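Input set for joint prediction.
Command: fold jointly, output tokens.
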Amino acid sequence: MERPDRNLKQAIGIFDSGIGGLTVQREIKSLLPYEDTIYLGDTARVPYGTKSQETVNRYSMEDAGFLMKRGVKLLVVACNTASAYALGNLRDRLTVPVVGVIEPGARKAVQVTTRKRVGVIGTEGTIKSMAYVNTIKSMDPEVSVHTQACPLFVPLAEEGWTDNEVAFLSAVTYLHNLKREAVDTVVLGCTHYPLLKGTLRKVMGEDVNLIDSAEETALEVGRVLMERGLKRTERHGPAEHLFYVTDSPDRFTMVGRRFLGDELGEVAQVSLEG
Amino acid sequence: MERPDRNLKQAIGIFDSGIGGLTVQREIKSLLPYEDTIYLGDTARVPYGTKSQETVNRYSMEDAGFLMKRGVKLLVVACNTASAYALGNLRDRLTVPVVGVIEPGARKAVQVTTRKRVGVIGTEGTIKSMAYVNTIKSMDPEVSVHTQACPLFVPLAEEGWTDNEVAFLSAVTYLHNLKREAVDTVVLGCTHYPLLKGTLRKVMGEDVNLIDSAEETALEVGRVLMERGLKRTERHGPAEHLFYVTDSPDRFTMVGRRFLGDELGEVAQVSLEG
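tokens >
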């Protein structure tokens, strides 16, 4: 199933540790319908969320290298852990614009918070990295940021248990402290979490802003393409979307349908080694 | 933190994709108190349960190689996915006895089942591999085997949510079909699951046999050592237990305490590459 010769000219490159970044791909596709995308899920080494900074950095450089070889015009780091640990490094070394998933969500939270009390939920790695806290504080030092790691949300999303009683009780347990802190805004700091939005809304109530970092990242990609004169404004024929994974495509394809519906096309396995 | 020069003579080598195998290490230590153990958790590449056979085979050979270099007298594959995919390969290539976690649990199930209706729960990879079904059927073709993947149980165990309402509802959902099939015996086909035994007992009821594959594997290790004349029957000073991981030890140490209590000693990070 390898197709190393298949390159899209001037596509948007997107990588994630696995499947979660598909929520970002979906938003980019919907917001920028003329753009081609190439998605890489490093499924042989997923998850990044529990791995060390050094390891995540190395993996991220390899993921980016794969996409750069395919001539992408912009790189999206659609993984919160990789954005937290490796974004600076990638920006230093790459010649194309690099968009992470943390800054866009953080910026939106700072814009919409009414009482300057923001909650952030994510994987253990993302929360431990303090990336959201530091980014939000750098944008507005007066915002108080309350964080909560929610390790069960990723397996719940992948299992398709997004609005059952198990998901609801897990959310009640994890969000208890954020509710007590009376945050007015919650950043969904993991690309899997948009699938749980309905349940999170039920637990947090109607008055709390839920920031979908996948949506915000797509908006940021649109802005950067426009600024750099890289945005496609027309095309002949439909946009193309390629999907690569580093382990067997079976599970990615099955769970990916849950993320994208029927829109997930052919998925090819590749090796990042050598 | 590397200590490549630290070898125990004639220890029992144990490897797992991560932390789950600690339940096996705990049982071996308790049953065979004179034996030294060396544990390797491949935490940089965890989990194996969702990865392909080819990938799991390659990782398992590297894990085994690391322990063989340290002069172990017996190798325990304390990971169900690796036992399902790589056991034959390891036995072909290694000069020491190799014990997996599937055969011992399967054998015990065949021995204790009263109505020849056995349930097996495990990760997606273990269940999909059909390893338990094939092993049980090869021991007694008349046993009907009913399987159920329970992807949330590993994150629940690692989160320490082993006897709360979320764990209970997850178990009710996953075990529904096994109860309907009226199995009289359930094999806990994943090394994390012994931590959920209380909840599984509550859901399945008192009359169903729960087979703890960690316990059965330790008994098998004792039998093999005895048969081969490799069992230590005395020693001066306490037995030693070394722990190695392939990613940062922080999370392993933290979650490992949940598995072993205070007994988890120093954990060193190593690289399997090169």
